[in-house]
Structure formats: C-alpha cells, structure tokens
Design goal:
505 residues, Aldehyde Dehydrogenase, Chain A, domain 1, Aldehyde Dehydrogenase, Chain A, domain 2, 2 domains, 6-stranded mixed β-sheet, binds nicotinamide-adenine-dinucleotide, oxidoreductase activity, acting on the aldehyde or oxo group of donors, NAD or NADP as acceptor, Ald_DH_N, Ald_DH_CS_GLU, Aldehyde dehydrogenase
Length: 505
C-alpha cells in the first residue's frame, strides 16, 4: 500500500511504530558479494556501522583489503572476458535488468529502511525519492540496452564502415553515502546496460543497502560476477580499486579531494579511464522580478535543508537582489525555524541527522567559522541536544565572497546569503567559485533568464525551479565539480568504446 509522498511520488503506508518495529527485526547481510554469492571474509579488518539516528552500532561490517578486492575484480573480469553478459542478446540483458528493477520495487520498503538507518535520510524521502529514483533508473537503462546505437556511415563505394559501441570492460564504481543507492544506479545502470561488468564500493557509512541491492541482482538472475560489492575504508578498498590493473573504468562520485586521488591512482597504474562527479557550492540567484518570490524563498529553504544539506547540488549560496533580500530571507528563516527535525524513521520528519559525528563536527566547524568571520547568524548554528548527529537548520546573512562559508562546500544544512544590486554582479558572484555543478536563476524576464543561464559556468542551470531532473537529461559538473555525465544516453560514453571496423568489399 502506498500513499502520496514528497516531490510528487508515493511512499509505503507504514506508521512510525511499524518502521521502528521493522528496524528492530532487521538482520542485514554484511558479507561482500563476489561472483554472485556472499564472500567468505579472510581474517582481517571489520568496522562498526553506527546509525546517525541514535549513535548505536547497527552492524559490524567486513572491510575488504587487497585480497578481497582482487577476488572481486577477478570475478568481474571473468564475467566480462568469458561470461555471457557482454555476449548475450541485448534484449536478454534488458530482461535481466527489468527483473532486477521489479525485485527492487518488491523490496522497496526494506531498502528504504536500510538507507534511512545507515545514513539518516528521513524515511519518507528514502522511500518516496531515493527508491523511486533507483527503480526508475534501472528501468530507464534496461530500456536502452536493446536500442541499437551503432552506426554504419556511408563512406567510399566499395567499402563498409561500422562504428560500434563496445562495452569498456570492468567498471569500478566508488560512491558516497548521501544518495547511496541512486549514486550506485547512476553508474551501474548504463554500465551494465552497455554490457560491462562491475565492482561497486559503497561508502563506509552506507554498506547495507548496496549489499541488498546486489543480492537482488543475483536473485534476478544476473550471471555471477556481473555485479560485485566490496565494503571498506576509502584509503584501503577504494584505493585498491583505483590502482587495480584489472579495472578498465573508474566511475567516482564523492569529494573533489578524493577525485584527485583517483586521477593519481590511474596515472600510476594502468591509465584506466576515470570519471568524476564531485562537490559543489551552487549559487541560487533571486532577481526582484522572480515570478513568485515566496515560491523562490520556499524552494531556496527546501533546497538547502533537503537531505540535511548533504547534497552535492545544494543551493548553498543564496544570491538575492538587495531590494527583495529582507522579504526572501525572512521567509527562509521562518521555514528553518519551523522545520520538523527528528527521528528519520518518523514519516513526519522533514530533516534527519547528519551522517556521522565526524561530519557533524565538520559542519559545526563551519558555523563557528561563519560567526568568527563576521557573518550574522540568523537562525540555528548549533548541534541539537539529543542522541544522534543532529544540527539545526542554519542561515547566515551578511556573508561576503571571501568568507569560508561562501567558498567551501559544507555539505550540511547551512545557507550563506549574499546580496547584489544588478544581474552582472550576480553572475560575477555566482561564478566566483572553484566549483561548477549547478546554479539557478529566478526571473520572469525570458531574455535575462537565457543571458544569465548562458553566463553561468555550471553543468546544470535551473530557471525558476531547483533540483528538477529526469533520466533523459545529463547530470555532472565543470571545474572542480568534475567531468563526464551521469544519466541520459550521454552516460553511455563513460562505459563504451567506439570501435571502427573498415571492410573493403
Ligand atoms: P568522499 O570523497 O569522502 O567518499 C566517497 C567515496 O570515496 C567513498 O566510497 C569513500 O570510501 C571513497 N574514498 C574516500 N577516500 C578515498 C581514497 N583515499 N581513495 C579511494 N577512495 C576513497 O565523499 P563523501 O563524504 O562520501 O561524500 C560527500 C562528497 O560527495 C561531497 O563532496 C559531495 O559534493 C560529493 N557528491 C557529489 C555528487 C555529484 O554527483 N557530483 C553526488 C553526491 C555527493
């Protein structure tokens, strides 16, 4: 049974009590998935997974060292070099992926619960937004698996040229915890549809949902070794994948700092192709002629507090025209104050905890920096005194471009408000950043919307909206936000090689 959920979706009709009861009954699998089965762990490391909701240990999870990573890559290698997956009829690959999507839909509530428990996302969003994106993504890429994308251009008479998209080989996908399953599917969907095989390394904070996702792939009948999952710390497990000579493509989503590591690992190993989806410090420009100023303010507030601000695309720099700044900021502060912050398992919760105590402390170091550098704290700014890693929704006014809270990615519920007097100044401020993931502009002037969108250096520009998207449109960044695109047909470019075959007839 479902009921209407956030952002036009639906959520499972489950009460707070029932979610808690289900959480109590969970006994999640923790073993790596290698070659279609739970992998025995060689004696070695394991780590405690702590739930951000209450600070309690959820599970003890094996950490993959070099041996497990070797085994996982070997399984993916065998499945690619010798197995049926890249060789089967594309329609058959599509059928496998669709079966997988159906199983994810069957177990949607369980997967949402795992996500919510491990990384603290409100259950309504885990279920209604994340799982929806996962199921839609698997189906979207399943559907393109059998759409011929090869070419046979007319060349010289007496010859035939074929341009075929060949699967690139073994893909390692290293992903973050903020949308643990969506980020995985943004890589796995196109990679597997193209005929590649994969090793997924989830973040240390979100291993359980990824293991369950992979078990469902095996249940759907994907051949052994097509999808493997190894867990462990980035510096060990992620690095071993980055340096592995058996990996052909490394698809990464995470911080800019770790993205640099992956480029180095590739340079020092087999020059594997590295694709980077990195951080952001996205500007959200509100002009006085915004079609609906209240809607612009509400969306600005929703955008920065959604997923507790743990969003690469978070509109963390609000650039608002001086003439309307008071009205817009007052409304955002009211929204922040009214936000229902609490247990992520409560379907009424709007904002949950931050993912870990370490991350909470990092976010609080920015609220301290904002105060110390002279910004004015309008609301929030502190931890919430209850078990778990909760921080208040926070808004700083009077921010100047050189302050750390205007320049660095905070990845928490902290909004920095800057003001401007004309559109040129807004664009200058917006582009005054090392990042280039997303941006937005609110105006009723069609020409201004186009001019400003064109001037903004970002992978996505939203006009009179924020965080809108669809699998048919690409997503990714420029500058320190990375390169390459997830989603859409363009994602196939990451996981395929164009081969030219020239035949003299
Ligand atoms: P992170 O970079 O710390 O970790 C991401 C992944 O990299 C994890 O699986 C981690 O284990 C691994 N890793 C960490 N150190 C490593 C190392 N030295 N070598 C190899 N692997 C390593 O990022 P995070 O804290 O999990 O996520 C937050 C970051 O992700 C933010 O910067 C955010 O903007 C970014 N992000 C970007 C997008 C996007 O699509 N552009 C989406 C979500 C998150």
């Amino acid at each position: 049974m479902t009921t209407p959920g956030p952002r036009g979706g639906t959520v499972s009709e489950v009460s707070y009590e029932e979610w808690r009861a289900r959480a109590g009954r969970l006994a999640p699998a923790t073993a790596h998935r290698i070659g279609g089965a739970d992998a025995p762990q060689s004696p070695g490391d394991a780590f405690d997974l702590v739930s951000p909701r209450d600070g309690e240990v959820l599970a003890r999870v094996p950490a993959a060292g070099k041996d497990e990573v070797d085994r996982a890559v070997a399984a993916a290698r065998r499945a690619f070099d010798e197995g049926p997956w890249p060789r089967m009829r594309p329609a058959e690959r599509k059928a496998h992926l669709l079966r997988w999507a159906d199983l994810v839909e069957r177990d949607r509530a369980e997967l949402a619960l795992l996500v919510s428990l491990e990384m603290g996302k409100p259950i309504a969003e885990a279920d209604g937004i994340e799982l929806r994106a996962v199921i839609n993504g698997l189906r979207w890429y399943a559907e393109i698996a059998d759409k011929g994308l090869d070419e046979a251009p007319r060349t010289a008479p007496g010859s035939l040229a074929l341009v075929t998209r060949e699967p690139a080989g073994v893909v390692a996908a290293v992903v973050p915890w903020n949308f643990p399953l969506t980020m995985a599917v943004w890589k796995l969907g196109p990679a597997l549809a193209a005929g590649c095989t994969a090793v997924l390394k989830p973040a240390e904070e979100s291993p359980l949902s990824a293991l369950r996702l992979a078990a469902l792939a095996d249940e759907a009948g994907l051949p052994p070794g097509v999808l493997n999952v190894v867990n462990g710390p980035g510096e060990v497990t992620g690095r071993a994948l980055g340096e592995h000579p058996g990996v052909d493509v490394l698809a990464f989503t995470g911080s800019t700092e770790v993205g640099r590591h992956f480029l180095r690992y590739a340079a020092d190993s087999n020059l594997k192709r590295v694709w980077l989806e990195l951080g952001g410090k996205s500007p959200n420009i509100i002009l006085p002629d915004a079609p609906d100023l209240d809607a612009a303010a509400d969306t600005a507030a929703w955008g920065i507090f959604f997923n507790a601000g743990e969003m690469c695309t978070a509109p963390s720099r609000l650039l608002v025209h001086r003439d309307v700044a008071d009205r817009v900021v007052e409304r955002i502060v009211a929204r922040a104050s009214a936000m229902r912050v609490g247990d992520p398992l409560d379907p009424a919760t709007e904002m949950g905890p931050l993912v870990s105590s370490r991350h909470r402390d990092r976010v609080l170091s920015y609220t301290d920096a904002g105060r110390a550098e002279g910004a004015s704290l309008l609301v929030g700014g502190s931890a919430i005194d209850r078990p778990g890693h909760f921080v208040e929704p926070t808004v700083f006014g009077g921010v100047t471009p050189s302050m750390r809270i205007a320049r660095e990615e905070i990845f928490g519920p902290v909004l920095s408000v800057l003001t401007f007097t004309d559109a040129d100044e807004a664009v200058r401020l917006a582009n005054d950043t090392d990042y280039g993931l997303a941006a937005a502009v609110w105006t009723s002037d069609l020409s201004a919307a186009h001019r400003i969108s064109r001037a903004l250096r970002a992978g996505t520009v939203w006009v009179n909206c924020y965080e809108e998207g669809d699998y048919s449109v690409p997503f990714g960044g420029v500058k320190l936000s990375g390169h390459g695109r997830d989603k859409s047909l363009h994602a196939l470019d990451k996981y395929t090689d164009l081969k030219t075959t020239w035949i003299e007839l």
